[in-house]
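Dear Dr. L.,

I hope this message finds you well. Following up on our conversation about the binding site, I have prepared a predicted three-dimensional model of the protein together with heme C. For your records, I am including the exact sequence and ligand specification that went into the calculation, followed by the structure tokens. Please feel free to forward this to your student if that is useful.
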Amino acid sequence: MIRWILGFVGAAFAFALLISLWGTASDYFSSPHEPTAEEEFHKHPKALHLASDGPFGKFDEQQLQRGFQVYKEVCAACHGLNLVAFRDLHALGYTEAEVKAIADQWQIEVPSINPETGEAATRKATPPDKFPSPYANETAARAANNNALPPDLSLITKAREGGAAYIYSLLTGYARQPAELVEKFPAAKTPPGLHYNPYFANLNLAMPPPLTAEGQVSYADGTKPSVQQMATDVSAFLVWAAEPNLARRHASGLAVVIFLLFGAIFGYLAYRNIWQTEKRKVRPIGPLDPDNTAKRRQASEDAGMPN
Ligand code: HEC
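The resulting structure of the complex is given below.
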């Protein structure tokens, strides 16, 4: 009797599964996937080549200094670098006095406490301070940016697929929204206060185009400050910000590979050297045993078979 009941319960489960499978399959075939505006108009990052690319890449100090200048004069108005300190700029070739001056003249002061009243205050930056965000907190940042939050840029090249190429594409990718897009997807029309950018995941970005005109910054080394150049330089700078030890990592990687190569060669030579004599001392067994080979040969000769 119990068997009957169990069989019945099992059959009921199987029946329910079959019905749901049928429902899913008929949904899949009856309502084909509707393409979205993001699927059709989102673009992959443009190609960008930096000196730090590849396993032997090194930073180009001049370029990093130019990129820092773009960050300082343009991006720092909205974005902090809370994992990078002013004194880290030594790595870009700035002297101690220059770093001190940069920190001292930074437009945004760092949070502090008034020593007399104990109230929150701000003070001038010093070399050990991190590059401050211009906003006191997230709410203030959102209030100033149409409810969007300008992210901290310390690790942004690691945090976004495409890295530096993505940043470069985003900065140079602002465009007028294609009429075709609005026609096909009226709901995806760029809302007021946002900006169309096909490299941004949802196509509409709250950041107004930060680099708009040639000569927005003037480079001390005479490089022509085109929008492309400024975007490339600031992307290179952000690669450095996210991984200041990249050049050292590449160099130690190379040393390790060379070490392993030598290790492999010496290992092979040592193996040859040891076995050269030792192998002869090992007596083969089984069919390879010389005694057995001789016996086999004898037997086939006795039987009159050719060897
Ligand atoms: C006027 C303020 C402002 C300035 C100046 C500015 N940004 Fe932004 N940025 C924003 C805001 C706001 C967002 C958030 C956008 C969003 O989420 O829609 C943002 C987002 C970003 C993002 C993240 C995009 C993503 O994938 O989420 C990057 C990268 C970025 N900015 C880089 C820069 C760089 C580089 C500069 C300097 C050349 C710069 N920004 C200058 C306001 C600014």
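In brief: The mean pLDDT is 94.

With kind regards,
A. P.
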